[in-house]
Amino acid sequence: MGDDTVPKEDYRSYDERYLRIRIKSHMGDKIHIKLPMDFVKKMIKNNTIDFFNGEDDIIDSDKLLNLLIQAFEYNLVGEIAYMERNNGDIIRLIID
User: Fold this and answer.
1) Domain ranges of the chain
2) How buried is residue 92: exposed, middle or buried, by Cβ count under 10 Å (0-12/13-18/19+)?
C-alpha cells in the first residue's frame, strides 16, 4: 500500500475510542488507565470521577473534568492535558 493509507485507529467511530490516563510518579510508580469513552461520559455525568481530588492537589478537578467534557463534545483526539507537578509527577490525559 502507498503512503496515503489511514491507520485503523484514525477511522474508528468516536464511541469506540478510549480515554487513557497515564501517571508517572516521582517515586517511579507508573499507572496506566484505559477507559471506554461511553463509560467515562457516564462517570462524569454521575460525578464519580475523583482521580484528581486530594487535600494537597493543586489541580482544579472541576475545571479538568470540564476540559474533558469539551474535548468529548468537539470529538478531539490525542493528548488533551499534560500536567507536571513540581515534585516530578506527570499526568497525561489522552483520547485515542
Assistant:
1) 8-95
2) middle
Q: What is the pLDDT along the chain (96 residues), one digit of tens a residue?
A: 444 444 455 556 656 889 999 999 999 999 999 999 888 888 888 877 766 655 556 667 778 888 888 888 888 899 998 988 888 889 899 998
C-alpha 2: how far from chain center = 32
Q: What is the DSSP string of 3-46?
A: TTPPPGGGGS-GGG-EEEEEEE-TTS-EEEEEEEHHHHHHHHHT
Residue 40 CB burial class (10 angstroms; 0-12, 13-18, ≥19): buried
| Of the candidates 14, 58, 12, 71, the residue with the CA atom closest to the CA atom of residue 37 | 14
